[in-house]
Amino acid sequence: MTRKLLAALLVFSLFSLSPALTFAQSTHNSQPKPLVFTHVTVIDVTGAPARPDMTIVVSGESIVALGKTGKVRIPKDAQVINAAGKFLIPGLWDMHTHLSFYADTKQPPFTAFPALIANGVTGVRDMGGRLEQIDRWRKEIADGTITGPRIFQAGAYVDGQKEMSEFRASLTIVVNNPEEARRAVVAQKQRGVDFIKVHNGVSREAYLALAAECRKQKLLLATHLPRSVRVAEASDAGTKSLEHIETLIESVAFDVAAGEKTKDPLAAMDEFTDEKSTALFARFAKNGTYFVPTLSSYRSFVQDAERLVATDAKYKPAAEGRKKLFQRFVQLVGLMQRSGVNVLAATDFADKSGGRRPDVSPGFTLHDELALFVEAGMTPMQALQTATLNPAKYLNIRKNYGTVEKGKIADLVLLEANPLDNIKNTRRIDALVLNGKYLAKEVLQKLLADAGK
Ligand SMILES: [Zn+2]
Question: What radius of gyration do the chain's Cα atoms show?
């Protein structure tokens, strides 16, 4: 192909992307100069105390210098931002998302990206969806065509034979036995997924085979607990994470002989005592099993039930049951943290706002999750770590992400108030640095406003 023809094709392909391109021009600035914050308080989330009056230098996509203001050389062509009175934390991660459920139902595809970015969410772990769509988005994010977070993705769910909608079936690989489970892992690896997400319909034998194959293929496994598997067993089998707090109670509720009725969730909850849970959580800690409670997602079920009660009092007992379970779930997260389990912040949002869970929305709800973790007994520092340091450890990308340190990729959130005083201050976002690029408050607000159109 001649160079001229190649150039013509490139121009053509740029024009064919024009709607996305317009969007990109409003947000994507190429950050030609080094970026410097002076007089900022740095919360690096390593557990070290906040360090006031710091200067941080970002060049290209990385943090190249960090030290006391006055002690750090400022490059002479730099864009310098006086951040006195402000607080710098790492970019946040939502570790359980579904970005692509409804992507093909809207033109141009609806994305959660503006809401995520405007809320300081610079990374997500996508837990089941359309692999090719997300691959395309990743490419567009990488080349600056659109503004979005870093994405790790599972692609399709691996599940067992169970009742599911046609829509869900289109995103699912069904495995009926150990051999199919092993083959699914290999096939997903070949498709380029970052990890395997297994769902609750898989048989015990298939699950154990799948977990073993993931270890063999060095693929991380994320488990929505299969009904036939106990939670301790999944941890022992080497799953890297367990998803959703309610699966702890389900694990007890479903632990019945074949043909026997499952236990009532509240009865199962009473059986799941502090003593039992402490022993279980010690086991998670020992096995290195991360836990992803998605408390805010469960809370949305409580809110749904409360709305129903407003229409008909007959829903009252169900609503009270859910509320009681939710209160216990919050306690259990506190117990988990005290037992040394690595907890991850996540919302389980799906991309369609007002969709299956109206109270769970991209970006905004992650801040609710952090606040719930503090209610559960975490310190604000520990809560911050569930969305920064812990995700980086879990994804094995700590070398470049997860803290504010020299040498790391510059994904940073500048806050107007101290999140260590009040975790709710993570919402008070003044600016974002995304892959080294500065996005001022006005840019973030414009992103949200444009997305709302
Ligand atoms: Zn999910």
Answer: 23
